[in-house]
Design goal:
Layout: H1 9-23, E1 29-34, H2 44-47, E2 52-56, H3 61-71, E3 78-83, H4 94-99, E4 101-104, H5 107-115, H6 121-128, H7 131-139, H8 141-145, H9 152-163, H10 171-180, H11 184-190, H12 194-205, H13 216-235, H14 250-265, H15 270-283, H16 286-289, H17 303-316, H18 324-338, H19 342-345, H20 348-374, H21 380-404, H22 410-442, E5 462-467, H23 472-481, E6 486-494, H24 501-507, E7 515-520, E8 523-528, E9 531-532, H25 536-547, E10 551-555, E11 569-573, E12 578-579, E13 582-583, H26 589-608, E14 613-618, E15 623-624, E16 632-634, E17 642-643, E18 648-649, E19 656-660, E20 671-675, E21 679-681, E22 690-691, H27 697-700, E23 701-709, E24 716-721, E25 729-737, E26 746-752, E27 755-756, E28 760-762, E29 768-774, E30 785-792, E31 798-805
Helix pairs in contact: 13-14, 17-18, 18-20, 20-21, 20-22, 21-22, 21-23, 23-26
């Protein structure tokens, strides 16, 4: 019966063989062990039986004889003479062999003795004629063989795994290595494995001799075509007859399809997959011979499939988008599926197209629903609840749509995006007109200054983020970004009007009761307890008096460089985006989302620094008016003191809600006018994209996040980059250093130069991972050295940085 390998089995086998031959010789004995090629030489020192002394042949038989005779002239005791060569016909050690025993045992002989392994011509060529193969297999025996039965096939599998640089035999990984690296015919040929590998591929794919190309290039072309076309056939079996070399057996075809997915999902081989897919598409003219079917909705083998679906959508929706509503169900289904597939994940323009269509459908549908619901509402609290429950999603989708639509050409915007903007505009106007009518009936009672009542100062360290223009939807996005760090509860506050930074920030000051506005020196002046508070520095000074010596006030950009070790109360100010109702010119939708990401990093940072309670509050929100979503125009009243897009001071006109200062929670006698619905005052100059200062759900219902840090210390992580970097594909080992078994996992990535790896998660369960990625483009001139950084993906913190030398082989 064949035996199985187990831990240390080779050493045990050798010891048993040596023990057996020594047992024949009594108390004194000599064994001359010939191991042609030194196939077991790396194990010799560890297998000498107890009580036996070892002498190793070092190239001179005379020296060996002298050493033995000097140590034991009478040859007393037990001696093992190891010779890493085949025995000579006229042996220099003949007398020792006659006195003791001669043992001829190389690696192949050992397997024959212990496993009843037949010594075939194939194994003789691989292991005996090429002793380096034997040595490599000995080194990795336990890892490669495991508990497998020792057979010729398993021996060959192990040798192939070693040749392809793998720690374990897996035909799938071997095939991918073969496809993605070069010169295998030469490299395998030197090890006697090329013809064997050629035959393995032939059998794996079920090809005849005539169907199997003989040279490496043609063989690769056929293998990659078989894998990719099998994947396509699994998506649509009706096309199977077109490709005779693809296995007809559904099980084999499915196995190749799974291999294609493995190829796509491999960070190391993705770039090669894209090149191979494009080659196969051109080679078989796939774009022109395939047509779409329902089965193709999920197909992701080739890039052109997305192109066909894009064309199909363009044919379905009229150029002006007039029948968009009739197609939303299929548009959403197709876009939702396609945006998550391989080519969309690696092509920003394609991903943005599918995301734009998906978001446009969601906005179109949700807008209709919200308008229908709003027609039945009467009270301010009802509108507030619907907005904070789910209407806020429309505003978030609108920002995201505006961010991704830049990848679409003008015709696609008209087809797929314009209907969404028309629907969103109707939502903003209709729902907010109904909301203003509810305010007219009930009045407006701001709750923004109640923010401090939610904070209880005690032994716990507290961090307070005061953020300009953090609309409710952006706060929900922020909550999602830090959910694994701070457990936030989202509440809503009614902003003080007009909803601008100068008033909103003043309303958030501690002890801000008695907020007043007045017209002085031709400008609007904000006062708290009769003290003028109009600038950022004045607000910081007020906070400084409130939080005392244990507190600290910093800007978000300064947070990482500030010493927080003795700080119990931390107030963090974000960048201020507007001045008296006018946003700064460089703000855009994507910039707002990036702003939230920076705030999220700040929150993670303070949580890691030991702040247990975290609060986030906004001064006001805003209305978003992208191109294609134009607000209505209201005429500016004559004699107004201040005129902004969404409010007027000291004037009134039709189409507005008119309120005295004391009617909106302010001290003073100024008169304010707020345009109703989605409308603005007619001002000269370019229309603004971001509007605030008025009364709407988006501007006036502001978020307050109250949270408890749940962050445990993260695992420490380090990286190893082999120097010098010798390839355009770099391999990096990332290791977790586990000092605390309860440490939280850490998501990290590696940056080499300006290229980054995929994100991986390290933990006490996942302590070591290998990363491979392309860090230098084809034909790009390599630098002499490059900076390698290990980054915390969630906080952006540089965990480790080193300068690595570069010496490319080619």
């Amino acid at each position: 019966m064949p035996q199985h390998s187990n831990s240390g089995v080779l050493k045990n086998w050798i010891r048993s063989e040596l023990k057996r031959v020594f047992e024949h010789q009594g108390e004194d004995g000599i064994v001359v062990w010939y191991d042609a090629g030194g196939t077991l030489s790396e194990l010799v020192d560890e297998v000498v039986p107890e009580g036996v002394r070892l002498i190793k042949f070092d190239g001179s038989f005379l020296a060996l004889r002298f050493e033995l005779e000097s140590n034991s002239p009478d040859l007393i005791g037990k001696w093992l003479i190891y010779v890493s060569e085949k025995p000579l016909q006229e042996s220099w050690l003949r007398d020792f062999e006659l006195l003791g025993e001669r043992l001829e045992m190389d690696f192949l002989s050992l397997l024959q003795r212990r496993c009843n392994l037949p010594v075939t011509s194939v194994l003789t060529d691989l292991l005996r004629s090429r002793p380096e193969n034997s040595k490599r297999l000995v080194r990795q025996w336990e890892q490669l063989m495991g508990d497998r039965t020792v057979t010729e096939s398993e021996i060959i599998n192990g040798l192939l795994a070693i040749a392809f640089g793998l720690n374990l035999w897996d035909i799938r990984d071997v095939v991918l290595s073969f496809l993605c690296e070069q010169n295998w015919e030469e490299r395998l040929g030197k090890k006697g494995l090329w013809e064997i590998w050629h035959k393995r591929l032939q059998e794996h794919f079920g090809w005849t001799d005539a169907e199997t190309p003989t040279d490496e290039r043609d063989l690769k072309m056929k293998v990659q075509a078989a894998i990719l076309l099998a994947d396509l056939v699994c998506s649509d079996p009706s096309i199977a007859d077109r490709f005779s070399f693809v296995p007809s057996d559904p099980t084999k075809c499915q196995a190749l399809s799974e291999l294609a997915k493995r190829w796509r999902d491999s960070a190391t081989w993705q770039a090669f997959y894209r090149n191979a897919a494009n080659e196969v598409e051109r080679q078989y003219n796939l774009r022109n011979i395939l047509s779409l079917s329902e089965a193709m909705v999920n197909a992701e083998t080739f890039r052109f499939i997305d192109d066909l679906w894009v064309q199909e959508l363009r044919r379905a929706v009229r150029p002006e988008g007039s029948n968009f509503g009739e197609k939303v169900e299929n548009l959403e289904r197709i876009a939702e599926t396609r945006k998550g597939l391989f080519w969309s994940r690696h092509d920003d323009a394609l991903k943005n197209f599918w995301e734009a269509v998906r978001l446009a459908v969601k906005i179109w549908r949700k807008s209709q629903d919200a308008i229908r619901v709003s027609e039945k509402l009467q009270r301010v609290e009802e509108f507030t609840k619907h907005y904070t429950d789910d209407w806020w999603q429309l505003d978030y989708w609108a920002l995201k749509l505006a961010s991704v639509q830049t990848s679409l050409d003008g015709e696609d915007k008209n087809r797929f995006v314009k209907p969404a903007w028309v629907a969103y505009r109707r939502f903003l106007d209709s729902v907010n007109r109904a909301f203003v009518n509810a305010v007219k009936r009930e009045g407006w009672q701001p709750t923004q200054w109640n923010f401090w009542q939610s904070i209880r100062f005690g032994q716990e360290r507290v961090a307070i983020f005061i953020v300009d223009a953090l609309r409710f939807d952006l706060a929900k996005y922020l909550q999602e970004c830090v959910g694994n760090v701070v457990n936030f509860e989202t509440r809503s506050l009614k902003a003080v009007l007009p909803s601008i930074t100068e008033i909103g920030m003043a309303a958030l000051l501690p002890n801000a009761e008695g907020l007043s506005v007045a017209w002085e020196s031709d400008r609007l002046v904000v006062k708290v307890q009769r003290q003028k508070i109009t600038s950022r520095s004045e607000r910081k000074n007020w906070f400084g008096r409130f939080i005392g010596r244990d507190g600290k006030i910093v800007d978000l950009d300064e947070l990482r460089t500030t010493d927080l070790s003795d700080t119990r109360i931390l107030v963090v100010f974000s960048r201020e985006l507007d001045e008296f109702g006018t946003f700064v010119s460089d703000i855009h939708p994507h910039g707002l989302l990036e702003m939230v990401s920076r705030i999220a990093q700040g929150i993670r940072f303070v949580a890691e620094k030991g702040f247990q309670k975290v609060f986030v509050v906004a001064d006001h929100g805003f209305l978003f008016a992208p191109e294609g979503c134009e607000p209505s125009i209201v005429q500016v009243p004559s004699g107004a003191l201040v005129t902004k897009g969404r409010f007027v001071v000291g004037g009134q006109t039709e189409g507005c809600w008119i309120a005295q200062a004391n009617e909106i929670g302010l001290q003073g006698n100024l008169l304010f006018a707020f345009p109703e619905g989605f409308s603005v005052f007619a001002l000269q100059g370019e229309r603004e994209t971001f509007l605030h200062g008025g009364l709407s759900l988006q501007e006036s219902i502001i978020p307050m996040l109250c949270g408890q840090a749940v962050l445990m210390p993260k695992v420490a992580v380090r990286m190893q980059v082999q120097e010098p970097i010798s390839s355009r594909i770099v391999r990096v080992t990332v290791e977790a250093q586990i000092d605390n078994l309860f440490a939280e996992p850490r998501k990290v990535k590696v940056r080499i130069g300006n290229r980054e790896s995929n994100v991986i998660e390290m933990s006490s369960q996942q302590q070591r991972m290998e990363l491979s990625f392309v860090w230098l483009d084809e034909f790009e001139t390599p630098p002499d050295s490059v900076t390698a950084q290990l980054l915390d993906d969630e906080t952006g913190q540089v965990l480790e940085e080193k300068q690595v030398s570069v010496q490319l082989l080619v």
